Structures are given as structure tokens and as C-alpha cells.
Amino acid sequence: MEEKILITEAIELKPEDILRNPKGRVYRINSYHQNKSSFRLSPYPIEQENENPVSLIITKEALIAKKWELITEKDIKLSA
Predict the structure, then answer these.
(1) Strands lying side by side in the sheet with 35-43
(2) What is the pLDDT of residue 10?
(3) Closest CA to 66 of 33, 44, 46, 41
(4) 22: number of CA atoms within 13 Å, CB side?
């Protein structure tokens, strides 16, 4: 059973972390955007046929306010 880890100020996010939004969509942090409180996200897993996947730029405050979760590869396999 997967354990939900809601993003909080205390959690340090970094590139390669995997996140799930409240609708259940999964994204991976590609890089920081401008500073370490904004991130560029891409859908995960990346679809090979799409050379330029859609990216999303979001602040850590928005991730916290909208109740995004920090997950692992194992969580993705369990929910599949």
C-alpha cells in the first residue's frame, strides 16, 4: 500500500523527483526554474513519440496549496 507524502515547506524538492497532482496525474521535476522555489515539470513517464513534451512551471507554494504528493517509482507500479 502506498503512503501519501504531501509536499510541505520542510520537504526539499529536487530534479528527478516524481510528483502526483490531486487529479492523479504524475509529473517529474526536470529542473529548477529561476530559483529553487519554482520547478519545470513534465508528464511522467515521458511518451517517446512526443519529441517536445508539454512542460509545466509551478512554484513550491502552489504545490503545497494544491496538495500535490511526492511519490516514488514503486508507488507508480502499485497504482498501475
Answers:
(1) 56-59, 35-43, 26-33, 18-20, 69-71
(2) 95
(3) 41
(4) 6
CA atoms of 79 and 8, how far apart (whole Å): 23
N residues, the chain? 80
The pTM of this model reads 0.85
How far apart, in whole angstroms, are the C-alpha atoms of residue 6 and residue 8?
A: 6
Amino acid at 4: K
Task: Read off the C-alpha cell for 1.
Answer: 500500500
Mind listing the pLDDT tens digit for each residue in 31-77?
999 888 899 999 988 766 666 768 899 999 999 999 999 999 888 87
